Amino acid sequence: MLDPRALYTIEDDAWAGVQGTRPTLVHLLEGYVDAGQVARQLSEHLLDSLDNELLVTFDHDQLHDYRSRRPPMVFDTNTWTSLTDYRLAIHRVTDASGRPFLLLSGPEPDTQWNRACAAVLQIVDALGVGHLISAQGVPMGVPHTRPVLVTGHATDPEVVGENPVWIDRVTVPGSFASMLEYRAGQAGVLGQGFVAHVPHYLAPGSYAPGALAVLDRIRAATDLDLPPGELATLALQTMSQLETEMESDSELGQLVSALEQQYDEIQASGRPNVPSADEIGAAVEQFLAEQDDDEPGSGHGTHQ
């Protein structure tokens, strides 16, 4: 393996400011299953609402497949006017009470996963990070009219609280975030994550209630002061829009009613309501395959 240290550049002033604080590292990467854009919304919310500065920049040209994920460009009349390039970086973020933490955000690496994991864990070790946190959304057959279910996982099962009934064992396509959590556990660092169950009919767009539910779990797990702010406003707007849409869309109303009945029956009976391992694996693979074809503004997934 090539030297992991050659993959990233450090901002010296920001680095000096975080040394000795034993910060938590929150990693919210794009590119894997993220129904409702839970990870993206959380990342944007934290960077938009809290003071932050660039700490580490990764050499993304070594990690990105540009023909798989092409950067958006704007052509206006007779010239290219903008390029939205990709960046994988760690920011030093200060919570509302002045406590620093780290946020790794950007696109999931396409290549060199082991080397990139080693690079992140070098930074974790150098800064004394003792806790890694991740988040994502998964599409599930649940209604938006019921509380958002969140499944927790960790390298130390003792820290995982009571989960909604999910499944005992399943094999799914891996992600860089999952590999990082696994490698962190091997290195003796606590890795933890939260998965919001996003209604499958809202999975392609932004589902703020899912991001808000995960934010609450992250706050409880880390004691970081992370105000919900605009994210809470977006969640309320989403629910209001959905209520209006259900009144005008009989098919959506029927779908939600059926899911409500199933949800309530399962809750009342206490019996598990989980898909099979094959069904979960197939759903994840289908969701990944559809990302290249689905536009974020299509169907019922446009709620912001």
Question: In words, what does this structure look like?
Answer:
This protein has 304 residues and is α/β, with parallel strands linked by helices. Helix content is 38%, strand content 21%. The strands form two sheets. The chain has an eight-stranded mixed β-sheet with strand order 1-3-6-7-2-8-10-9, sandwiched between helices. It has a two-stranded antiparallel ribbon with strand order 4-5. Helix 5 packs antiparallel against helix 6. The protein is globular, with a radius of gyration of 20 Å. The N and C termini lie far apart (42 Å). The C terminus is likely disordered.
Brief rundown of the structure:
The protein is an alpha/beta fold and 304 residues long.
Salient structural properties:
304 residues; alpha/beta; eight-stranded mixed β-sheet; two-stranded antiparallel ribbon; 10 strands; 38% helix; globular; disordered C terminus
Layout of secondary structure:
Elements: E1 8-10, H1 12-18, E2 25-30, H2 38-49, E3 52-58, E4 73-76, E5 79-83, E6 89-94, E7 100-107, H3 113-127, E8 131-140, E9 150-154, H4 176-186, E10 190-199, H5 208-222, H6 229-248, H7 250-269, H8 277-290
Parallel strand pairs: 2-7, 2-8, 8-10
Antiparallel strand pairs: 1-3, 3-6, 4-5, 6-7, 9-10
Helix pairs in contact: 2-5, 3-4, 5-6, 6-7
